[in-house]
Write a structure and sequence with these properties.
Elements lengths: L1 H10 L31 H25 L10 E4 L9 E6 L18 H15 L6 E6 L6 H7 L11 H19 L4 E6 L1 H13 L3 H4 L2 E7 L25 E3 L3 E2 L37 E4 L6 E4 L3 E6 L4 E6 L19 H4 L1 H16 L1
Parallel strand pairs: 2-3, 2-4, 4-5, 5-6, 7-11
Antiparallel strand pairs: 1-3, 8-9, 10-11
Helix pairs in contact: 5-6
Length: 368
């Protein structure tokens, strides 16, 4: 129970939710030594009651935590928060982590007392935000993201029918509102999400960007690896997908896979949006390797970066919404977890320098 106390004290705003406390001073009489004035319980009944109390004590704090909002004034709830540094950057970058947590016994990522999770989050956030960090201050919140297996199981369900993603959506919504109120200071911003991070950010855009003042600050939303992104949003007409290299206030996404028949969670439906991050077209015109500005890959253990220029070609398959990628070193990018030919894990890596150049182009267009 000590860990539960520390978890509350450092992580959450208390809202007066009651909890059960087990301590000394709770006594039960046995049959052979009854306490005067107290009911006598058999040993079996007493054990059941004690187990029930213990279970309740363990359960209530975590169910209460699930209902409480994270406190984003607490620096421990930000992976990266560049509030006071790099103020000369042209724009801000608000970034949401992809799925980095896998645990069949726990549905949601917690980080405050988990140094391994913190290290992993900081490494991945630094690598991914490095795409745009040369010209942007970075803000990246922690959130109670859904665990990998649970996300994958529900990934093709409508968002309202998914069970596990909504806690993370609520957390990021709180973080984004806190960022706007305390850190933004009227600056334009880029949104960057990958995988689950993109799924969360799209829901934030649906709920928050009807506000024209917020929408007007958006340079672009790079929601990379979003599964089966629709081309239009009839219920949210203020959301638009990018159609060229320099339109602003738009959503950008694609999902990479190998040529041929590939079974993927991320593509294959009708009317799926995709833009080619090399030639910035939405049709099937191929972008050859000579047009490719470059990939960046990271060693998982050391974090060492390796750059490869003119490394891939890319072509959209309009019927499935897939981006077919042919790397000059084939056979190295399949995912055991997601399936043969699914290059989802490398969506950002393949087009690292293409995205960086495009971000600058859209910023310049924004200021015109």
């Amino acid at each position: 129970m000590k860990n539960v106390k520390q978890f509350y004290a450092s992580d959450f705003k208390r809202t007066g939710t009651p909890c059960c406390i087990i301590g000394s001073g709770v006594g039960f009489a046995t049959e052979d030594g009854a306490t005067p004035g107290k009911k006598v319980f058999s040993g079996i009944v007493m054990k059941k009651i004690l187990l029930l109390l213990l279970f309740t004590a363990l359960l209530l704090p975590f169910s209460a935590a699930a209902r409480e909002n994270l406190d984003y004034s607490n620096p421990a709830n930000w992976v990266i928060c560049e509030e006071t540094i790099r103020k000369n950057c042209e724009v801000d970058l608000f970034y949401v982590l992809p799925t980095i947590y896998s645990d069949k016994n726990n549905a949601y990522m917690l980080w405050h007392d988990n140094k391994a999770i913190q290290k992993k989050a900081q490494m991945i956030a630094t690598q991914n935000t490095g795409i745009f960090s040369p010209y942007s201050r970075v803000f990246a919140p922690y959130y109670r993201q859904a665990e990998f297996r649970r996300v994958l199981k529900e990934i093709n369900l409508p968002i309202e029918k998914q069970k596990f993603i909504h806690r993370g959506i609520n957390d990021v919504k709180e973080a984004f509102r806190y960022y706007l109120k305390h850190y933004n200071k009227g600056r334009p911003f880029i949104l960057l999400g990958f995988s689950q991070g993109s799924m969360v950010l799209l829901e934030i855009m649906k709920s928050e960007f009807a506000d024209r003042k917020i929408n007007a600050k958006l340079v672009a939303a790079y929601l990379i690896g979003y599964p089966n992104m629709p081309k239009t949003f009839p219920n949210c007409p203020y959301l638009r997908t990018a159609q060229k290299a320099d339109d602003t206030g738009v959503i950008i996404t694609y999902n990479s896979q190998a040529p041929g028949k590939v079974v993927s969670h991320f593509t294959g439906r009708n009317n799926v949006y995709c833009i080619n991050p090399v030639n910035w077209r939405t049709d099937s015109k191929i972008a050859g390797r000579s047009e490719h500005k470059g990939s960046r890959f990271f060693d998982f253990k050391s974090g060492k970066a390796t750059d490869k220029k003119e490394f891939v070609s890319a072509q959209i398959v309009p019927s499935s919404g897939a981006l077919v990628v042919i790397p000059s070193e084939p056979g190295k990018f399949d995912s055991r977890a997601l399936g043969k030919g699914v290059y989802h894990m490398f969506d950002l890596n393949f087009f690292y320098y293409d995205l960086r150049a495009n971000g600058k182009l859209r910023i310049d267009a924004y200021w015109k």
